Amino acid sequence: MKIKRFHAEDVRTTIRKVRDALGPDAVILSNKRVSGGVEIVAAIDYDESLVGGMAAQTGSVTSATENTDYKDAQPSSEKSQRQQAVDDVRYSRNIPASQAGSRKEAVAAQQYNSADLASKSQDLSDVQNEIKSLRGLLLNQLSGMAWESESKYHPTRTRLLQRLIALGLSPLLSKKLCEEVDETKEFDAMWRHALGILSHKLPVIDNGILKTGGVMALVGPTGVGKTTTIAKFAARYVLQHGKDSVGLITTDNFRVAAHEQLRSYARILGVPLRIATDKDELNDALYDLRNKKLVLIDTAGVSLQDAQLREQLDLLNSGAKTIHMFLALAANTQRSVLNDVVTTFKQSRLDGCILTKVDETTSLGGVISVAVEQNLAISYFCDGQKVPDDLHIARAHNLVSKSVAIMQTITMAAQQDLASGMSSEHSMALTVNGMVAHAHG
Prior knowledge:
By secondary structure, the chain is α/β, with parallel strands linked by helices. The chain has 17 helices and eleven strands. Among the domains are: 2-93, no CATH class; 202-410, P-loop containing nucleotide triphosphate hydrolases (Rossmann fold, 3-Layer(aba) Sandwich), CATH 3.40.50.300. 56% of the residues lie in helices and 14% in strands. The longest helix has 59 residues, at 95-153.
């Protein structure tokens, strides 16, 4: 307990001093008139049990207002002590209790306001969810009506849209292709025309790295086959130009035994391997391999949200020598994930992409859509584990034809529709409804 005396010419001024010095939680223990004014003894962090004991010893306590009438006469010693105790209890019980009551009311009001605010926030959230649900329902109904109208008045174009979506293309790209096709032609001619337009839209690039060489780094998320693809490039170049023309670098120091797979390939091919974990080591490795026609850099696969991804890209961009950076995209990845991958890695400088696991996908439409919509050129694609056989230069018409061949061999969706008794047109209507609703948020 902290006790302090205060002096002033009147009670009000003295109490103001108490409040300024000790705050609103102060407890007045006693007050008396002294020469030149009033003296108040106040405390903070007082012990209520002590005050209660004093109250029991002194008996009943008069009203707090009675204490404001001070006597000029000086009481006897015994009376003064008793009066002092009464004053102590009176002020500790009346004035602080009033303050405590005010504090309790304030706390209760604050708790009520918080609860009221939380309740209103929950109500608002419920209303927003309800509006969102109704909006989605309305969009589904409107899109269903639009689909029925489209099917009725443009049956051939509707059929073409179905075929393009079945190819795995995004709804937006499929719609654009339908708008560019001559609707007066037969369906087969429209289909071929749409595929031709898609081939022209698909960006591909032959950077000639397998002919002219250079420094090439392969980046991408975990598990897309970067190391195996690096080995395919190295083996292909060794077969064409000899083992003295190739050098390998790895910056993957995050995984346990990360270098062993690439080290095995380097030993089989008879080419040197360097490990670089920072800017200086990367520049030293590039300098050591300066006489090599082709230098291939393997990188660690990390999550898109991992801070180490930024470190990897910054490391490659900090090299003293120009590094051509290519993004490895697994063709068997969902289109939405591919979009996120490309968006993340395009923050750095990309010279193109290389498709991997083409032999493991059930649709090439997703990766083709991402390449078209993100304007990311495809340079090579891999369709197997054989080194170096399963590495091919990307050609737009070849990739489109391959996507059509894959679609034709996949009959599982049609079998599921037949088994469930759902017509293909009804199934497509539901698909378009969902796509339209998603496009509107």
